[in-house]
Amino acid sequence: MGPVLLECRMLDPRSQRASPMVPAPSSAYVDVILPRRLHRPFTYLIPPELKDRVVVGRSVVVPFGSQDLHGLVIAVYPQLPPGAPQEGLKAIRSLSAASADHLLTADQIGLSQWVAERYAAPWGQCIKLVLPPVGRGGPPQPRYVLTAQGLARHSSVDPLGETETEVLARLRRRPKGIMATTLLKGDKARLTLALHTLVKQGLVGRCDEPVAPRTLRSTMPPGDTSAVALPMEPEEAADGVEPTPPKAMLWPTVLEQARTKQTLSPLLLQGTHRTRQWCLMQAAQATIRLEKQVLILTGDVEQASRLAGFLAARGERPMLLHSGLSMKARAAVWQAAQEGSVKILIGTRMAVFAPLSRLGLVWVDGEDDASLKEEQVPRYHAREVAHHRASREGAVLVLASNHPSLESLSAVQEGRLTACVYRAPEQLPRVNVIDMKHSPRDVGGGMVLSPPLIEGLRGALRQNALSILYLNRKGFASVLHCGDCGAMPQCDACSVALTFFRRSNHVRCHYCGRTRPVPEHCPRCQSLKLEPVGSGTERVEEAVRRQFPQARVGRVDGETIRRPADARALHRLLTAGDIDILIGTQMIFRLGFHGRALFVALPDADAGLHVPDFRSAERMYHALLDAAALARPAAVGGQLLIQTRLAEHHAIMALASGDEEVFVQQEQAFRQMLQYPPWTCLVRLDVSGTKEAVVSHAAERWAAVLRARAAGRERTVAVLGPSPASHVLRRGRYCWQILIKSSSPEVGKEIAMRTREELERESRRGGLRYDIDVDPVSMA
DNA sequence: AGCACGCCGACT
DNA sequence: GTCGGCGTGCTC
Question: Distance from residue A42 (CA) to nucleotide C10 (C1'), in Å?
Answer without folding.
Answer: 13
